[in-house]
Amino acid sequence: MEQLQEGYVQSVAATAGCLFIRQERDMFGMDAMLVRPSATPSGEETSFYVQLKSTTMISPSAAAEDFTYRFNKREYMTRLAALRRTVKAVLIVMAVPPGQADWTDVQPSHLAVKQACYWICLEGYEVPDIQKPSIKIPTINLFDARALTAIMGRIERGEPLRD
Fold it and tell me: What CATH number does the domain containing 93 carry?
């Protein structure tokens, strides 16, 4: 599942003109960094950390407003909820079908990944005092190139990623 999700996020990053940089070591629970190069030679790149989570336990429906994701450890949510002055952090959740053979569909014209990723920024969330907390992720937070570009824009403008 980890490889499938990394491939998905790498594809979205490439489509948005960004880099996917996998963390080789545990970086405070963050799995990778997404970086958008500056549009000008004298500009500064924009980046944020991502925590990647995959699961076969849920199946988000586009007709639903949101879906629930439960962390296996409280510390994963705690790290994402921390207030960050510099590099922001985003959770990206992918729900995949239980059968590994059902994860992709290959046709001569394309490769289809059977489930999408969804994103949420938890900065400032109050973490419940339980071992395995849950959050609701809006189904409109589909992680695609348009969403990634919008996230990068908000970070560049100093806008919060949470509404």
Answer: 3.40.1350.10
Q: Indicate the pTM of the whole model.
A: 0.93
Percentage of the chain with pLDDT > 90? 75
Residue 150: count other Cβ atoms within 10 Å of its Cβ. Answer: 13
The residue with greater pLDDT, 148 or 162, is 148
- The answer to whether position 161 is within a domain reads no
Q: How many domains does the chain have?
A: 1
Task: Tell me the three-class secondary structure of 96-160, residue by residue.
Answer: CCCCHHHCEEEECCEEEECCCEEEECCCCCCCCCCCCCEEEEECCCECCHHHHHHHHHHHHCCCC
At residue 24, does pLDDT exceed 90?
A: no
pLDDT at 163 exceeding the cut of 80: no
162 lies in some domain: no
| Per-residue pLDDT at 26 exceeds 80 | no
- Position 140, amino acid: I
Residue 163 lies in a domain: no
CA distance 125 to 21: 26
Q: Render 9-43 in DSSP notation, one character per residue.
A: HHHHHHHTT-EEEEEEEEETTEEEEEEE--SSTTS
Residue-number span of the structural domain to which 45 is assigned: 2-156
